[in-house]
Amino acid sequence: MSEEIQNVEKLMSDTVLNDPATIDGIKNLIDKATPLVQAGRFNNIIDLLSIISDNIEFLDEAALEKTTKVGEEILALGWTAGNAVRMANAQTEALEKPPGLFQLIGSLNDPDVRRSLHFFIGTMRIIGRQMKND
Amino acid sequence: MTSSTKRIIVVGGGIGGTMTANNLVAKFYPEILKGEIEIMMLSNSPNHIYKPANMYVAFNAYHPHELVRKQRSLLRPEIIFHVDGVESFEFEQNRVLCESGKRYDYEYMVISTGCIPAPERIEGLKEAGDHFYQTKAAQQLAHKLRTIEEGRIFITVNFPKTPNVPHQCGIAPIETTLMLDEYLRKRGVRDRVEIIYSYPTASQLLRNCLFLQKPTCDVLPTIFDSKNIKYQRGFTLDKVDPEAKIAYSEEGKSQEFDILMATPPIRAVDAVINSGKSQAQNNEGWLPTDFETLKMYGADNVYVMGDTVDLPVSKAGGTCHNQSPVVVENIASEIRRGYTSAIYDGKVQAIAQMGLEAGMPLWYDYKHDVQVAPPTKLGGLMRKTFNRGIYWAVARGIV
């Protein structure tokens, strides 16, 4: 008996391949995949798996650090802005009537309002600087 | 806040407290809009530190500032946040006294104040030992690991004296042992540095094992042998001689070392220890907690989670992640229905860092131990993605 056959028999007897349920399951998979394989439609799936596998190989700590940092910054920005809009919306909906002009101007006394205005003005300043023709 | 507003106080700005405060806002949003419920967080720090990643600092894989965010930036704006540590709990009056001298009343309270490494509880360990559970300690260890050229690194794991309560983050000693092996190989000094991993005789319900769960304990010798990591069972650290650099065990053994990498004893924070509610041994301070509802025994409107509990579950963020929804649902159910309705099943999940690159997702609960799977690069990338980004989404209650 050749060594290859012995190896196959050993594999069959030592592993879950020996279990009839495993063989039934594999047979079902083969039946299901056969039309895809015969028509060449399975090739794209194999290629897709290869790309996923290659990208896992390419992905290293440095790439991960950059992408997760960007991801966290976008998420944090969206979360912070979304929370502020949701809360401000709830406060606005709770108003019986809109605030008067003097009330609005008076809200400039609120340091939180002035801080956020400074944030928006600062953001515009930075965008303007980026747009400047050097 | 009106006189009819019910206040829920979350004490502790770690991962458990932060996600729970955010989850409470989401759960009680209709009541918060109507001014019926208010969520308040009390923390002793304006910053939030991702503590578990300090073990990466020990291997110079992270800069400490990468592990810090402003606590306010992690909290929904509906949360009233005070940087004011709790000085004492006044359970009978339903209020807490803070370090500022202010008192805050509550309808419900969640205590998630974590634990503190206490190497001083073993003679000589503070002077001679190193650990990776706090940033400064991890930086000190990093310096030693970066410069050691030859010698012995002895690893010791110390459990709380309270029966069946684990040390901080169950898998961390194995993670760091495997990271240490790879780190020294990268440095090219591994063949001149001996690594000896030890474990105490009693580890929760097991005896003479290398880990606190048997399936993992059974595979560890094979893993350690393949990496030439020596291991010693039954070494319960008794005392350390800092000058002679010798660790002595309660079992009468001794080990010489050049670096003593320890998982130190731990304790609850002072305010929890002084609350008078703990039944833990050795003045460790763990609060008596119902293992299903997570309610504290002795106070019907107080819940406990994370490291502060006296339960046989890992003191880790992956535990908080599963406890938080139970605590939030039970408070909501009590306020809205008059009874608790959620049950904690002891579930903990994590991705163990098995060496510098590979990772192994794991999960277990009260009834099932960790099932060990082969570590993979993909698992390692998942862990690193969690460290760099997903952790902060978890804290915000997004994930």
Description:
- The complex is a heterodimer of chains A (134) and B (399).
- Chain A starts with a helix and ends with a helix.
- Chain A has 134 residues and is an all-alpha fold.
- Chain A is elongated, with a radius of gyration of 32 Å.
- The longest helix of chain A is centred in the middle third of the chain and has 33 residues, at 61-93.
- The mean pLDDT of chain A is 89.
- Chain A has 3 domains: 3-58, no CATH class; 60-96; 99-134.
- Chain A contains 6 helices and no strands.
- With 399 residues, chain B is α/β, with parallel strands linked by helices.
- Chain B has 2 domains: 6-114 and 269-347, 3-Layer(bba) Sandwich (FAD/NAD(P)-binding domain); 118-266, 3-Layer(bba) Sandwich (FAD/NAD(P)-binding domain), CATH 3.50.50.60.
- Chain B is built from 10 helices and 24 strands.
- In chain B, strands 5-2-1-9-22 form a 5-stranded parallel β-sheet. In chain B, strands 11-20-12-13-16 form a 5-stranded parallel β-sheet.
- In chain B, helix 1 (15-27) runs parallel beside helix 9 (317-336).
- Chain B is globular, with a radius of gyration of 21 Å.
- The relative contact order of chain B is 0.15.
- At the A-B interface, helix 4 of A face helix 10 of B.
Biggest protein-protein interface? A-B, 19 and 17 residues
CATH level-4 homologous superfamily of the largest domain in chain B: FAD/NAD(P)-binding domain
Largest sheet report of chain B: 5 strands, parallel
Number of strands of chain B: 24
Q: Beta-sheet strand percentage of chain A?
A: under 5%
Mean pLDDT of chain A: 89
- Radius of gyration of chain A equals 32 Å
> Topology as H/E string of chain A?
HHHHHH
Q: Which strands sit side by side, in order, in the main sheet of chain B?
A: 5-2-1-9-22
